[in-house]
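We store amino acids, tokens; thus:
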Amino acid sequence: MDKKLSHYIERIKDSFARNTDINKEFIFFLKEKLKIADLDILSKNFEISNYQIDLIHKFIDDKKKGIPIDYILESSFFNGRKFIVDNQVLIPRPETKLLVDYINNLYLKKNAKILDAGSGSGCIGISLALDNPKILVYANDISFQSCEISKANKIMHEVKNYYLINSNWLSCYQENIFDLIVSNPPYIDKNDVHLKKLIHEPKIALIAEEKGLRNFRLITKQAYGKLKKDGILIFEHGYNQSKDVKLILKENGLHGIKTIKDNNSNFRVTFGKK
């Protein structure tokens, strides 16, 4: 058995027809998962262990199946921090940072209460809790497996002001309790062609009925009673859903409704006040 790392670097190039993205992912995998230093990666004579070789073989098998690098590494970076992920939660997306950035730029008084509804890995709520240590961040998710991942991330980041429960949306909370509710709910229509590229991510976290709008309607209807006066409800949604989400907020009594564009000039975040 050839134990030289350079042999496996060349094998990756040959196996994936010189796919530069997978080549880059493999180098990142070597650094992040196998903890191999840059100089050793460049060396022609650096040898690796049998255990590391087994992990490389698994990497090759996983990439042939199209498994995202985040699931292979069991981690993903969001808002400058590493989060634990697996195939029970969505991989954090760059556009979701719009939610965190907007909320971080608000004036959040001490002990302000924020809810992350449908928290998944916890990347939104934990980011807000770490960036704003004087506020109280509550979070929930209907998936027990997602809650376990979120708990692991809470422990890893040693978050003290983040409170998680296994629950569906907002029905378990008191009235007039939150200063802000944030949610990145499932919003993809079951017939959307983009789902073909997302086969490894949990469908429960992706798909919603009523052309992807069902969860916006459910959450908004419940949120009005849970928000304090002038409380804010803010959603991430699909690139083509801003008009529908704005209408849902308006029909449920919210005002001051605005949308925010992502880096591709698509309206991806909509919010309104009670």
Summary: The chain has a mean pLDDT of 93. The chain has two domains: 5-66, 87-273.
